[in-house]
Each structure stands twice: as structure tokens, then as C-alpha cells.
């Protein structure tokens, strides 16, 4: 009993799409007050989530970097989350809260979910929601996501063509995520569906180097932090 | 030339799902610095967006309340936005920025889009994205919205049964918005699809009086600020 009552809380904090002032007040306070911070890194690269939050991180805070290998197989990433969860659990068992930094929103394609799945049964979990990359892209592009009876779909571009085409057919607005190496295929698909003229490419929304342009004028390669917004209904909100 | 250069900017500010500390830092600063605030009210009731932002509103700020009639026909609401846009335009023409408060995110089923559509051609527009009610509901329910190849749909419950059923079939996660008088019909539909056990009801997420419970245990009536999260894949994130 005593041990459970003294255990720390796992706090998943969304740091938003990139601009530090798009953190919520709650997120900023949680990070400023943290004694232990955890965050993912990809194949040893600096953590994007940490870089967004850097201005709120106090000196001397303990940091748990969970390095995720960038290989297609799932097992090595799962092993990395297993190890990361063990390191976090040690802090929680010692009564220390652990603030886990997440790009965007923790529940929206975030790595936090993998930690939550491993720890929620034993420890208290809190989630501070954040601004997603989809909301950020809509804001910088000036494009409504949904109004009235409009349907919105969020689809990873890693899905096969048929699944993407079905989603594009059935929704007024579609956000295509995780473009990466699927970008050329998705462009061909949108062209074939006659939707290129309705598609906007957004890269690094709200960050330095932000790119917002019609898909037809997009660069040949899409980095990880990019997405396509397809808004089929040109005037849905008048 | 001179007039255009001196014109004010229309700033759509998302105030998030309800808790005042879920405003972004950028939103809080925009509101604190505003000389003119605009916001919708529904049929004369107090503005929910204004109540979320109240702690950041300075004394003496000019306020433009745009009252939207609560009737099914679209024309009276359109007329109200027309009038509101004219009142806002007068401030913008006089060189005053106008900060428009929006529940959640301005581009996500927000009334801001109706003002933007009327004013964007003549005035500069900026959008400060916010945390949506969907992210807030996922946070308080501890439910992932999407991971890996998971597809997410956001569907207004005002759509006919067939459209809702198609969306529920094709996506791992569905957020059903705008429940209101459609709530009993949606519950019957989910029951028929065998999805009640996968459905979570969330009301007033992050606010006093928050309700989070399995749909089977939801109250009989759903207020405006409620939604259902259907998460079909029980363990998508391990």
C-alpha cells in the first residue's frame, strides 16, 4: 500500500507542433517543474520534442533519452520501449514523477502511447493534450479542416493505395501523414484521383523553414515533419 | 496603399477544450495584448470561448459579441456572421487588430472559419491553432487516437446512419462529434455494429463536471460539449 501511494506519476506532455509558444500553459508548467524528463530520440539524433521544450527545462533535471532504432522491423523499437519503460519505472517506484515529452499531442501518433501501454497498469498516468501537426498545418495554410457536416480523416501515407483512395473518396478533408518515402506514390495517387488541385503541402509548420504551397509546387522529397491537406470542398464554411 | 498598410489583422485564436491552462502561450499573449476581442455567442447565452479565456482578458478591451441564432436554417446564422464581419471590418479598417476567440482549434468545426471566409480577401489573417476537444477527450480517457498505420475519422453525428456506419467500418478510431439530439440514434447504430464495448463517452473534457465513462454507462442525454471515441483496435500501440 505505502509503496503504491508514494509512487510517482507518468505525465505525457504534448509540446505541440514546433514553435515553443505553441506549448500550452499546463505543458510549460509541467516541464518547468519536472525533476525527471523522458523523451524519444530517433537513431541517436537530437530529440525534436526536447528541442521544442528546451526553453522550459531547468538546469540539473534528470533526463531519460529513449533511443528508437530507425529500422522497419518492429521488434527492435519494442525492445527500446521495454528498456525505456524499465528506466522510467525505476524513477516512478522511487516516488519521482516522470514528464515524458511528446511532439504534437501524446495520443496522436505519439511514442508516449508505447510507454503508457507498458506502465499504466502499475502507475498513475496523466496526459496533457497538445496542438497537433494537423491543426498547425491548417492554421498556417489558412485551410478549414471541418465545418458543419464535413468529415475529416487522418491517414498515414504508409497505407496501400486502395485504402488511401477510399479515405479520399469518403471525406471532405483528409490529412495525409508520414509521407517520407511514400511521397511520390501519394502524389501519383492524388493526381489520378484529380485531387492535386485540392492538395496543399505543409512542411515544418510553425517552425523556421516552414513550407506551405500547393502540392503541384511541392519539393520532390518530403521530410518526416510534413503532411498533405486535401480539402475537397472549396467553400464549405460560408 | 496607405490604408491597406495600416489595416489591422484578424487573429483567430484557439482557446482549447475548456481548462484555461490548456491555452497555448501564444494564445494567452494574443488575448492579453488585444484591444478588440470578438467571439460568438449562441442565442444570447454567455460565450464559452470567452469564459475559457476570461483570466487573460484585460479591463477596458472592446468586445464584439456575434450572436448566432440557434435554429436549423442556415440563413439566419449566415446573416449574423455577415453583420459580425462588418463590425469586425470596421475595426480592421481603422487599423485595430481583432482577436477572435474560438473554442478548441479555429480550423476544427469553429465559427472562426465563417468570419475568415468573409474577411480574408481584404485583410491579413493569422490563426493560432489550439488543442481540440478530440485530443482533450483522448487525454482524459487515456485512449490513443492513432498509432502506426491507424486511421482516424472525425464524423459529425448529424450525418445519416449509412455515412456513420461506413466511417466506423473503415477506421481504427472514430470521434463522433455534435451528438445533441442525434445521441440516441448514434447509440442504437453503435449497438447494431457491435461497437458499444469499444465506445467511450466524454463530456466537458478538462472542465469541472467532466464525465468519462463507457458508452454503455453514459447518461441519456448528451450536451453540446460531448463526444464519443470509438477505438476498435484494443491494443494498437504495444
Q: How would you portray this structure in words?
A:
Two copies of one chain form a homodimer. The first copy, chain A, is an alpha/beta fold and 238 residues long. The model of chain A has no long low-confidence stretch (mean pLDDT 93). Chain A has eight helices and ten strands. In chain A, the strands form two sheets. Chain A has a five-stranded parallel β-sheet, with helices on both faces. In chain A, strands 6-7-10-8-9 form a five-stranded mixed β-sheet, sandwiched between helices. The interface between A and B is large, with 63 and 63 residues. Chains A, B: It comes from Rubellimicrobium aerolatum. Chains A, B: GO terms for molecular function: precorrin-2 C20-methyltransferase activity. Chains A, B: This is Precorrin-2 C(20)-methyltransferase. Chains A, B: It is an enzyme of class 2 (transferase).
Amino acid at each position: 500500500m505505502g509503496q503504491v501511494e508514494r509512487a510517482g506519476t507518468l505525465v505525457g506532455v504534448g509540446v505541440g507542433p514546433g514553435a515553443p509558444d505553441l506549448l500550452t500553459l499546463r505543458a510549460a508548467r509541467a516541464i518547468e517543474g519536472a525533476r525527471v524528463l523522458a523523451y524519444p530520440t530517433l537513431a541517436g539524433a537530437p530529440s525534436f520534442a526536447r528541442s521544442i521544450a528546451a526553453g522550459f527545462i531547468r538546469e540539473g533535471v534528470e533526463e531519460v533519452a529513449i533511443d528508437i532504432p530507425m529500422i522497419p522491423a518492429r521488434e527492435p523499437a519494442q525492445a527500446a520501449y521495454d528498456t525505456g519503460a524499465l528506466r522510467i519505472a525505476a524513477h516512478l517506484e522511487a516516488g519521482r514523477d516522470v514528464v515524458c515529452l511528446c511532439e504534437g499531442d501524446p495520443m496522436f501518433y505519439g511514442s508516449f502511447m508505447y510507454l503508457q501501454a507498458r506502465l499504466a497498469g502499475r502507475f498513475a498516468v496523466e496526459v496533457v493534450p497538445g496542438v497537433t501537426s494537423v491543426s498547425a498545418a491548417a492554421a498556417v495554410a489558412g485551410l478549414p479542416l471541418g465545418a458543419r457536416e464535413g468529415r475529416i480523416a487522418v491517414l498515414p501515407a504508409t497505407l496501400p493505395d486502395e485504402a488511401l483512395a477510399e479515405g479520399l473518396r469518403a471525406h471532405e478533408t483528409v490529412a495525409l501523414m508520414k509521407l517520407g518515402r511514400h511521397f511520390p506514390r501519394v502524389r501519383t495517387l492524388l493526381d489520378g484521383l484529380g485531387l492535386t488541385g485540392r492538395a496543399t503541402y505543409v512542411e515544418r509548420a510553425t517552425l523556421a523553414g516552414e513550407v506551405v504551397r500547393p502540392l503541384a509546387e511541392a519539393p520532390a522529397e518530403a521530410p518526416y515533419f510534413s503532411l498533405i491537406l486535401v480539402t475537397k470542398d472549396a467553400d464549405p464554411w460560408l
